[in-house]
Design a protein that fits this description.
Strand content: over 45%
Largest sheet: 9 strands, antiparallel
Radius of gyration: 21 Å
Number of strands: 34
Number of helices: 3
Shape: globular
Low-confidence stretches: 1-26
Distance between the termini: 23 Å
Oligomer: single chain
Mean pLDDT: 79
Helix content: under 10%
Length: about 425
């Protein structure tokens, strides 16, 4: 019975038996009843699927996981073609796949790139409306490092139908999951990333911002300067947009000291001069910047180093209660060490859910923020996550958590394991 309820909520994205009232929001929604951990599979063949660091969105009443590369196993027990090994085996099964749309809590239909699209790197997606999502991808710059894109493209996916693929940026973009930020506000999808671009004889660099509006595409520079290491956007309920980043240059005479900065937008498309929130450098260079919005309460998280079994990272936290106008430094989260960064989403009211991965064991942990305090840390479902999980709220009462795990593979390199995607659907419980 519980499974039927979970599937009904997932497919309709409306769970009338768990409507969140304003009174419940005020008291907080900081409990999640998680469904069983399941391997994601293609519905017709039952073959396991792996999606790299997916964006999780709701598409036509179903949860859709978009990411690249996406692999579908050769069979239920064989990952790659029997004649392929190593990286060639991985590439053999991608076949233009960029994700999967779930039709129940574990199986679904594969999502493919628009016809004729080739040479793709890092795909990100954001909700446009209940029936469609905006999808962005880069094309590699052969003369630059593997994380640089020469062009950024956009297309809208409605159900199973792709709209036109349009090029929205030409230059040199830093295009990997840690440097791209995407959000939605006032009917527009906004994308931000570090980049260089030549306009005539003038070369610009900094943070490029691309806005896919109802009738036009607008491009601005949110910040002009040395491209930063990490970029993250925050959209407040007041419809103001902020971009946080870790950047600047080290040294006592630097005009822009290295640190955590924030810039805010104006309706005209002009951005404020970046404001230094926290100075970094030396032993605390700053890594894995993450943001989350819950109404007008905004949170910023970053770690002082990448995090490893030998060098645990400490997670730092800033919070704004006025849509990003002012910020308060809060105590570092007491999370299991060594932590390799966090993922976070907003819940009802000012609630925030944070998940993190233990670098040494791969285990996941969850912690809630509500009413100015953090809950106790609780274990999540998996003890062997390959990397940070993906986390998204797909309806007022449901969240999806997905992570990669290793599974036994019958043929690849003497039965060495290969990646599959695990997933769990959680029902949010609010105070009565």
């Amino acid at each position: 019975m519980r499974m039927l309820k979970t599937l009904g909520c997932l497919l309709s994205l409306v769970c009338t038996q768990h409507v969140v009232t304003e009174a419940q929001q005020a008291r907080g929604c900081s409990t999640i009843e998680w469904g069983a951990e399941r391997t994601v599979r293609e519905a017709v063949t039952g073959r396991p699927v792996y999606v790299e660091t997916p964006s999780i969105v709701a598409l036509s009443g179903s949860a859709t996981l978009i990411g690249y590369p996406t692999y579908m196993w050769r069979s239920g027990s064989v990952f790659a073609d029997s004649g392929a090994t190593g990286i060639n085996a991985l590439q053999a099964r991608s076949e233009g796949l960029i994700g999967i749309t779930l039709r129940d809590d574990q199986a679904g239909e594969m999502v493919r790139l628009p016809a004729g699209t080739k040479n793709v790197m890092t795909v990100r997606a954001a909700q446009h409306d209940p029936r469609s999502v905006d999808v962005f991808w880069g094309t590699p710059d052969d003369a630059s490092p593997a994380t640089m894109a020469r062009e950024i493209w956009h297309a809208r996916l409605t159900g199973t139908h792709w709209g036109n693929a349009d090029r929205v940026f030409v230059g040199r973009a830093f295009w990997n999951n840690s440097q791209i930020s995407i959000d939605t506000m006032s009917g527009a999808t906004v994308l931000a990333f570090p980049a260089y671009r030549t306009d005539g004889e003038r070369q610009r660099s900094g943070i490029a911002e691309v806005e896919i509006g109802p009738s036009a595409v607008r491009q601005t520079w949110a910040y002009v300067g040395e491209p930063p290491a990490y970029v993250a956007m925050l959209a407040a309920r007041t419809q103001s947009l902020s971009i946080a980043f870790i950047g600047g240059t080290a040294g006592p005479s630097s005009p822009m000291p290295y640190g955590v900065y924030i810039a805010r937008s104006h309706p005209t498309g002009i951005w404020t001069k970046p404001e230094l929130l926290v100075a970094l450098g030396g032993d605390t260079p700053g890594w894995n910047l993450t943001t989350v919005s819950a109404g007008d309460t905004l949170h910023l998280f970053w770690s002082d180093q990448p995090g490893s079994a030998r060098a645990p990272a400490e997670l730092h936290h800033l919070r704004s209660s006025d849509g990003g106008q002012s910020w308060r430094t809060l105590a570092a989260l007491d999370l299991p060490e060594p932590v390799g960064g966090v993922r976070a989403i907003g819940l009802a009211g000012d609630g925030v859910l944070v998940t993190t991965r233990h670098v040494k064991t791969g285990s996941l942990a969850l912690v809630f923020w509500s009413h100015d305090r953090w809950s106790d840390v609780t274990p999540a479902l998996s003890s062997s996550a390959l990397s940070l999980p993906s986390l998204a709220r797909i309806s007022p009462t449901q969240v999806v958590l997905s992570w990669g795990v290793q599974a036994s593979n019958a043929l690849l390199m003497n039965n060495q394991p290969a990646p599959v995607l695990s997933l769990s659907i959680g029902n949010i419980k609010c105070a009565d």
